[in-house]
Amino acid sequence: MEIKYLPITHKQNAAGSLFAVEGINDIPFAIARVYYILDMPIAARRGKHAHIKISQAALCIRGACKFLLDDGKEKAEVILDNPSLGIMLEPMIWHEMYDFSKDCIIVILADAHYDEQDYIRDYTEFLHKAQK
Ligand code: TYD
Fold first, then answer.
1. What pLDDT does residue 67 have?
2. 105 and 36 in contact (C-beta within 8 Å)?
3. 46 lines ligand 1 (CB under 6 A)
């Protein structure tokens, strides 16, 4: 399956690094929600769901982690370990996050507000809907 990578504009100098993400320009949607995930135990596994309509972009802004992406036909594993390269989490992509480094911080940008109705949290249900 095709992974959509998102290069993120950054400015680096002796005073530090600045990363800027603009909706529409750097990611293919207007940003309605931002959330960040941190303090994951190394053995944790997060995500384990797909969204019906919501599109998201995932960035690992510190440390490293792995993403499993699954479109119902193919699976891919992606290592995110660089704040200047994110990935798209498109609708109907089952995703799981794991192998978190101790310092890992993930930022997710979404095109809609939080809506539990948009989640598919059952893998069998996901496969059924994805293969329609
Ligand atoms: P969840 O999406 O299951 O987290 P992850 O995919 O990282 O494992 O969300 C965990 C909890 O946080 C759940 O109770 C819903 C809540 N939540 C919000 O309140 N707002 C949000 O924007 C998100 C993404 C989750």
1. 98
2. yes
3. yes
- B/e letters for 51-72, b = 16+ CB within 10 Å, e = fewer, are beebbbbbbbbebebebbbbbb
Count CB-CB contacts under 10 A for residue 32: 13
Q: What is the number of the ligand 1 atom nearest to the C-alpha of 116?
A: 15
| d(CA 35, ligand 1 centre) in Å | 9
Q: Is the CB of 35 under 6 A from ligand 1?
A: yes
DSSP H or E segment with residue 107: strand 105-110
Q: What is the mean pLDDT of the chain?
A: 97
How far apart are the C-alpha atoms of 11 and 69, rounded to whole Å?
A: 30
| Chain-centroid distance, C-alpha 27 | 12
**Does the reported pTM lie above 0.90?**
yes
Ligand 1 contacts CB of residue 36 (under 6 A)? no
Distance CA 116, CA 51 (A): 9
> Could you read off the pLDDT of 49-108 as tens digits, one per residue?
999 999 999 999 999 999 999 999 999 999 999 999 999 999 999 999 999 999 999 999
